[in-house]
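pinging the channel bc i need a second pair of eyes. not urgent but kinda urgent?? the chain im working w is below, pasted from the shared doc
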Amino acid sequence: MRLGGRIERCYACAMKLRLTTFRLLLTLLVSLGLSACDTNKSVNNTGIALSDCRIKDIDSVARCAFVSVPEDHGNAQNGKTIAIHVAVLPSLARRAEPDPVYVFAGGPGQAASDIGRIVSALGDLRKHRDIVLVDQRGTGKSKTLTCVENMPGAGSKDTQTDSLRQTLTATDVEMERDRLLCLATLKGNPAVHRSDDYIDDLEAVRKAFGQQKINVWGGSYGSRVALRYMKRYPDSIRTAVLDGVAPTTLHLPDDALQTSEAELRSVLAGCAASVGCNQAYPNTLATFDALLAKLKATPVRTQIAHPGTGVMIDATISDRTLVSLLWPLLYQPEATRLVPSLIGQAAGGNFAPLAATATASSIPSENLAGALRLAVMCAEDMLGRTPAPNPRFDSITQLFYAACKDFPHGKVAAEFFEPTISDIPTLLLSGNHDPVTPPSQAILAAKTLSQHKQIVVTGMGHIVSIHPCVRRVLSQFVDAGIVPTKPDACEADLTWPMPLFYTSPLEAKP
């Protein structure tokens, strides 16, 4: 279900990494302690055979298998099972530590096997431990929940072209048609595709491979999975690393859009405080609001050349188009430096520069599972709720709630939204410019975690594990298995300088 194309791709759950310019969407990794040459050897005599496989953006050979789990863990006696895809990245050590690292991807909707770049960035964890990627049910190769997502050029290799065209041309009528098409072609049971169903799968995998304890790393939505796992199966987890913390008390999309709106105001206030930016684009917030109101009343019909192919697109720019293209830029400070310039050019009738930013992402729409995204969000975040007022992002808020209005989904108990109380050693990581999971969410989660350390990196946005110092602290933390009593020397300067604002398409000034 496309949910406006670009909007679907940028959702926190969706969630971005500095390596891809705008976003991080994180991995689930599980380790099984095998050498890559054992092509058909079963693990721990469980009968689960792993075969050599390849994971995108990972140089070394991985080991993959499908693990059978109950479709409904609460009614396993009915005998119905589903196949969950597991990929193992063996430790670089001759003898791996017995406690592997599970890394939980973002979204909901991102498959672990699709985020090899994130795994590479966390390579230090692999020095002593196996890392395994488990595709959440309904994502990637765990094709347990699907529907026809009617995107232009489906199947084309040029997914970025399709996504941009989709964003620039989708009308309310087309989006409603696609929503109904997804409902009509839905396969699988959405009611058993909640976060807790995923966690039960992870616990089944852990047991199947005979792992007594595991370490978990969760980014963005993956941090919610980690916190729930810690609450439900505390004896299974040795350490936890949470990056871009999204506790179950956070409701999507409302809370994420509220903090995104605050970050947008912060960015434009920064422009006003910059001599060069303010001179080039004075009163940018007022300019943005006026443009938003104008496009909401009367969308602009225009032609835009695709920046990669030169093919002309007959575009309709609405308030939703404007916001859905700007929102991903808020995830990383280096991208926010473009925002005043892009707003200024759009206000002058030139939407091509803003449209061009859509091609900077390396994550195509086809890599996000729309049906699973709705199954989780409708059952957890939007269950029994009405949209929170947020005028600047209202068009996106309404889009998500409209998608949930008759999408079949499960429910969660009231305790789901209660905080995780735990004494598991936990490292909480945040960027002070994160628009969707700001440091305040980590502070909230930390209140009930008795053994924790919190790190905030100044000058970074969503997901900070790639920062050299954070990678070092993270690796040392997992190796030691306890919260450090003293800060690492590198923590004294956990700051990335803010880049300059662009005052023209080619020039940045202080």
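so Confidence is low (pLDDT under 50) at residues 1-45, 151-161. and The two ends are 42 Å apart (CA to CA). — does that match what u expected or am i reading it wrong
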